[in-house]
Design goal:
By secondary structure, the chain is mostly helical. The chain is built from five helices and no strands.
Length: about 160
């Protein structure tokens, strides 16, 4: 549901503000949405047992979460947010930080773990971080709505 709301905000925004604001929002929302999708995909793979396959392949997949997020962060550095967009920008960067520093390392540890009890504990930690990321995504979207109001963007 959150993705649907964000996509609606991204793709059906009516521009009554500057093109710069619209272009910024479109790009930053795209980066944020892509990371949200990657987080969901990885979490679904964990729950389906995909991270319990070939250790070498799954280690590459686990590391790819942080790499992908880092790429999105690099793209976001090319964007210069307006004063009104800054809180939204900061929340997206916070989301990226949570993935890179808290969530992704747990996946690497999970794949590297050999003990079943350790894997169970790590899976519980990943689930907790996933819930934290969902909350941060909601916060980010709420901040984006305020940004929309300030600059005159509206979502249908």
């Amino acid at each position: 549901m959150k993705k649907y709301v964000l996509m609606m905000m991204l793709f059906t925004a009516l521009v009554s503000c500057s093109k710069k604001e619209f272009a910024y929002n479109e790009k930053m929302s795209y980066l944020f949405l892509n990371c949200m999708e990657k987080v969901d995909e990885n979490y679904e793979r964990l729950n389906s047992g995909s991270y319990d396959g070939d250790k070498e392949t799954e280690l590459k997949n686990a590391k790819r979460i942080a790499t992908y997020t880092s790429e999105m962060r690099t793209e976001s550095k090319d964007l210069v947010p307006s004063e009104d967009a800054k809180p939204f920008h900061d929340e997206v960067l916070k989301y990226f930080d949570m993935i890179e520093k808290e969530y992704a390392p747990l996946f690497v540890s999970y794949v590297e773990a050999t003990d079943a009890n350790t894997k169970i504990a790590l899976k519980a930690q990943i689930t907790a971080k996933f819930k934290d990321l969902e909350q941060q995504a909601t916060t980010t979207q709420d901040v984006q709505k305020v940004y929309f109001e300030k600059v005159g963007l509206t979502a249908k």
